[in-house]
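Take one record.
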Amino acid sequence: MLRAARPGVVRPGSSHPGAAPQLHVGARLEDAFDRRLAARLRRRGWTVRIEPYAGYGAPGWVRVLARTLLAAPTVRAADLPGAGGSAQAGSAAASAVRGWRSFATAQVAGAPLEVRVGDRTHHVVTDRGGYLDVLLEADLPPGWHEITLAGADGSTVVAPVHVIDPDVRIGLVSDIDDTVMVTRLPRLFVAAWNVFVRHEAAREPVPGMADLYAALRAQDPRIPVVYLSTGAWNAAPAIGRFLRRHGFPAGPMLLTDWGPTNTGWFRSGPRHKVTQLRRLMTELPDIQWVLVGDDGQHDPEIYAGAARQFPDHVRSILLRQLTYGEHVLAHGLTAPTHESVAAERAAMRGGIAVVQGEDGFELLRSLRARNLH
């Protein structure tokens, strides 16, 4: 039964207030700047908006994800970065916008929210970055649901949440950058162009990956899909619209926040992925996960580490092989790093199937050839 998570408990990586007893100097400086900025914007008439993200859960609990932001009164709801966030649940998406709009907002720390989950009402507060990431008690049946989040001024939004059927035994975790979406993220100027300027409709999917995921879920459409990335939460709605536009299955995203953390100047992308994988495998102990990524940076090491720590919870590891040019952009070499190759071999020695291919079509052919599909 999928009941391991304990609602109300602060877990590693949670954005719950009070998760760190002493803030790093970088975080204190950022908070001071944000307070002054928020005060100035409020005087100009900016109002608090709630940006909902898709969550997940199991019988008895749900993980709720959202953020509180300040936006100008002239900004329409359809123009907010959260517009179209329901695409994460497979609902109709809003019109695409340019990426810079997702960053033209200001965070609101410590905002009180009322969360209505079915017949239950919970009162929560956002963290220093304006984020809400909390486990709440719930009595929802399996499937997709909408929960309501209300601000202090009475404004409301709905957030999708996927309650996983307790009979399901397989799940899919997917990286985003260069796994399902061609982003060339490590190349700073190209990444900035893709995020801030280039129209999101022009972003390119990795060939065959949507077909691969459809094939993996063909036998049981209840299989949960979680998109795990080191990308910023600001990009979540745009990514959700991209995934829906190109036929990828619905699923919550676990992204991160840029800037200083409670304990350091910079956030660690690999640590974020490790923490979130650990959460998934402890909160949903009956699920065996298919982990999908690429061999460009840290996915092989991270996934091999998860397989080593939770061998009963990793079904297989699928790695998209980057081209020579993509490898150069990723880490300056024309081939996977020695650490990546060693991690893949370690996972195979541990009995975990590791499948590689240049795109989704080749990965699917390899899976079928090895009778792993």
Q: What stands out?
A: The chain has nine helices and 16 strands. The CA atoms of residues 14 and 133 lie 6 Å apart. The longest strand covers residues 47-58.
